[in-house]
């Protein structure tokens, strides 16, 4: 695949631009192989499904390893999340969530993945019953997450897999930053989905680039997708209202090396990365 170099109006050398990667089900690897095998980051979405984790996932993982022969980029997975929360009061729910996430880690270990996306449990600024602040029980909420993730974090550390906790419905970066900081470990970092941040900006939250700056050195992973601010569109960059120049300026300024993952429909990945390349923002 030929990647168009930035036009002369862009002063930065293409060699200093950040390298894009992508998320996809393993069934789409062949279609993007040439591009991915340029040392790009890859996130496989297969472990999101309970059908995979409850099935013959070891054989599935072996097939993935075969398909990834010669791949040299950083590899990760999106962990299971449907119907799960890492912040539950009920110990039985905590055990269920922990077991599911450890199932994801088992598959990550089998294919050599070194990051797993976990969803943030925080809702907006909270809601009338849970405000996610120090005077309304944030410490107790963080302890619930620690109880849920204790074994998950230990296993992730043992296999060299970074857990990146992704903003989902978070309006305020502070609770998520407090959560990640509370682990005081390189094993737990922040994932910022710029589309999710843009959705919350429409409801009074900070902009995606502000989220990136707030995360700083704890930023381990970024989902790149565009939106109109109404729904979680997962449009390709340039199709929505996100200020991509500010996003990539913030990425240049933070002292971190996050995995930059296009989280789009598989058939739109090529067009999405080409738009960012043509804008002189990435390669």
Automatic annotation (TrEMBL):
It holds the Pfam family AP_endonuc_2. Residues 58-276 form the Xylose isomerase-like TIM barrel domain. Keywords: Endonuclease, Hydrolase, Isomerase, Nuclease, Plasmid. Gene3D superfamilies: Divalent-metal-dependent TIM barrel enzymes. The keyword Hydrolase applies. It comes from the Bacteria. One of its GO terms (molecular function) is endonuclease activity. The keyword Lipid metabolism does not apply. This is Putative endonuclease IV-like and Xylose isomerase-like TIM barrel protein. The lineage of its organism: Bacteria, Thermotogati, Deinococcota, Deinococci, Deinococcales.
């Amino acid at each position: 695949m030929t990647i168009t170099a930035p036009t002369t109006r862009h002063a930065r050398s293409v060699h200093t631009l950040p390298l894009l990667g992508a998320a996809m089900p393993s069934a789409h690897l062949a279609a993007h192989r040439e591009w991915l095998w340029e040392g790009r980051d890859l996130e496989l979405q297969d472990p999101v499904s309970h059908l995979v984790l409850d099935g013959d996932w070891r054989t599935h993982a072996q097939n993935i390893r075969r398909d990834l022969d010669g791949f040299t980029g950083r590899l990760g997975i999106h962990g299971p999340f449907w119907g799960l929360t890492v912040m539950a009061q009920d110990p039985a729910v905590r055990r269920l969530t922990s077991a599911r996430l450890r199932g994801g880690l088992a598959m990550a270990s089998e294919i050599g993945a070194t990051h797993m996306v976990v969803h943030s449990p925080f809702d907006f600024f909270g809601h009338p019953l849970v405000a996610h602040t120090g005077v309304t029980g944030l410490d107790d909420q963080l302890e619930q997450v620690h109880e849920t993730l204790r074994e998950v974090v230990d296993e992730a550390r043992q296999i060299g897999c970074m857990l990146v906790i992704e903003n989902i419905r978070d309006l305020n970066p502070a609770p998520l930053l407090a959560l990640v900081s509370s682990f005081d470990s390189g094993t737990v970092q922040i994932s910022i989905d710029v589309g999710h941040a843009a959705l919350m900006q429409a409801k009074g939250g900070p902009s995606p680039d502000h989220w990136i700056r707030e995360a700083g050195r704890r930023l381990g992973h970024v989902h790149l997708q565009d939106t109109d601010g109404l729904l979680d569109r997962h449009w390709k960059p340039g199709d929505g209202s996100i200020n991509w120049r500010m996003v990539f300026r913030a990425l240049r300024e933070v002292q971190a090396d996050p995995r930059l993952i296009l989280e789009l429909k598989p058939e739109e990945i090529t067009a999405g990365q080409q738009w960012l390349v043509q804008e002189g923002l990435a390669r």
